[in-house]
Each structure stands twice: as C-alpha cells, then as structure tokens.
Amino acid sequence: MKFNFDGTGSIVAMSGDFTFTDHVAFLEIMNRLFETRAEPIVIDLSQLEFIDSAGLGMLLIARDEVGKSSRKLTLRAPKGQVKRMFSVTRFETLFAIET
Amino acid sequence: MQQRVIETLAAEIMRTSDFVETEADSLSERFQRLAVNAQQQTARVDSLTGLAMGIDVEGEIIRIDQVARLFETTLGEVVSKILLLSKDSMAMVYALDTLDASVQNVGKCNAGIDGINGTLNMLALNARIEGERAGKAGAAFRVVANEVYELSKSTQGLAATMKSELKAMTDGILTSYDKLKRVATVDLSDNILAKERLEIVLRALVQRNNGLETVVAEAVRESEAISSDVEGMITGIQFQDRTKQRLEHVVDTLQVICKALEETRSSTATQVPELATASAPDTEWVKHLLSRYTMSDMRERFVAQILDGQPVDWGEETTAKGAPSSSGSMELF
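Output (structure tokens, whole complex):
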C-alpha cells in the first residue's frame, strides 16, 4: 500500500492493496491525521484495489481514535472489491462514505 | 294410415328417449369418475402449495422467506464478529508494537547502566591504586575504594538480571507477536464476500419460491374450477329424467290422439261403410315422408310398421338393436 497526504494534512489517499503488512505504515497515517486540526479527516480510497479483513480492522481502529476527539472519519470513493467489502460489512452504518 | 304414422312416431320417441337415458347414464358415470379424479388432482395440487410455501423443520413449517431472513441475520452476525475479531487483533498488534518499543528502550537504559558500572569499576581501581601509593595515610581511601568496587559488582549483577529478564520479555513478545500475526493475517475477505454470494442465492431462492407459489395457487384455482364444472355437468345430465318425463307425456298424448282417430275411423265405417273402402291408403305420401329420413334403420322400421303393417316395436331392445351406447358411435351417412 502507498499513501499520499494533501497539503492540509487531513486528507490522505491510499493506493494498491491494504493488508496486515501495512499496519506500521497505517500507524504513521493515523498519527499524522490525528496531529492535524484541519477537518474533515478523509481517507481517499479511489485508488485502493484490495482490502482484507485486517485492513477493515485498522480502519475501525482509526474510526475509534478519531471519535475520541469528537471528529469524524470520512472514507471517500471506494471502488471494486473495496466497495463490495464495505457493502457486505455495512460500513455505511459505521462511517461517512462519500461516493 | 295417420294412426300408424303416429304410433310409429310415438314408438320412435320412446326408443330415442331410452337411447338418451342410456347414454346419459353412461356419461354421468364417466363424469363422476372425472369429478373424483379432479378432486384428487385438486388435493394433490393443494399439497404442493404446502411444499411451495416452506420446509418442514422438526414438524414446524418454516416459510422460505423466513429461512432466508434467518440466514441473512446469521451471516450478518458472523460478518460483524469477523470485523470485531480483525479490529481487536490489530489493536493487540499495535499494543505489542508499543510494548516492544518500551522493552527496546529499557534495553538501552540497561546498556547505559553497564557503561556507568564500567566507569565505577575503573574509579574504584584507580582509588585503590592511589590509596596503596599513599601508604598508611591512604587506608581510609582504600576502604572507600573497596566499597565502591563492591557497589559496582552489585549493580553489575542487577544489570545482568535485568538483561536476562528483558530477554525473556522480548522473547515472549516476539512469540505472542508471531502468533497474533498468524491470526491477523488470515484473510477473511473471501468469507465476508461469501455473505454477498449467499444473499444473492437466497434472494433467487425466495423469488423462485414466490413464482412457484403463484403457479401452484393458479393450478389450485383452475383445478377447483374444473371440479366445479364437472359437477355442474353431472347435475345437468341428471336433468335428463325431466326430458324423459316430457317425452312420455308427448307419447301419451299421441296415443290418445291415436285412440281418437281409431274411434273416428270406426264410427265413420259404421255410419258410412262406403267411405271405409272408398280410398286406398296414401302410400305415395308415406313414401315421400320416409324419403326425408336419412337414418336407414329408422327408415326400415317405418317401412315395416307403416307400409307393411307389422306391429309397432316399442323399443324394449333399444340398446341391443339401436345405436350402441357403450361406444357412443353414430351412424355415418
């Protein structure tokens, strides 16, 4: 998985496959997102091709952490397998999902 | 002549009435069998309704849509648990990462203690050398040097114990991490997406079942309509009795007319004998009448009874001589 922050530091775009092996990189993403005061906090998934159950678990951890500061985590433009996984797990009830 | 025509006609009516009665009885019997079959068919189709509606689970009929909902709920719960498991596994991975970092820091502190200890050792050794060089005046200095050396040895021992404990902790963390990694890296995405496939299959199953229910319900309605029609036909056929009664009245009336004609003929013969023998029977008129008949057996009976003067056949052997009732065939001409 690769990631890229925008200028505000509150929007990060992920690409490639998001699996267990990316947990260290995702910790860095979380730390940088939590450091910023800008809103909204958005993870752009439009270039993410695959997510496994560990990836879903990490997004849920990020959601809990963002919630501690009474902010919201928005997932943007999931596609393909990622979108199907969100649909089956009813992620739309847990996250704000932008299409 | 007219008297014979009327008698022959009356006999033909009776013969036809008997024929119709026999055929009606036969038809009624067949329709009753048909009605029984139709009722059995309705019962069979009705039992299909039960099969189409649901499945028997330990004596309880559960509708297919209920089964689908149960599956959906169960699968939803399984997926929720997979998500919770994934989230907790990753949370533990992050906690172990943090713990490992802390242990690494403690290891660095231990290295620092080793450094301090080495310096203390050197300090004690130098102090002792200086104490020896000072002779008697350095006795107190030597005592302090020994104490510092002993202190350094104790610290070294503690540092070694800490190092050993830290290694055990690090090994434990690594083992736990490996085990947790095995759990966290099990990709359950296929299992999650299996829910999607199962939901599609279940939706198709419910749809097929709804279609089946509709078809079976239509079949039941049609089957009931057939049963009702057949019963109506049987009732209609049974009204043939009334037709027979009407025909008997007609025959009775014709016989009364016949008697009246006979009385007229007798009184005419008595009062005007020359008229009785004056005119021959109008056989041409009768032949013209008979030429209108297209059924040969009927024509033959009329010729025998009207022209040849044979006694009137009242049709007691109708079924034997007339059209066969069992086959229901008709004379072709």
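Strands of chain B lie at 54-57, 60-63.
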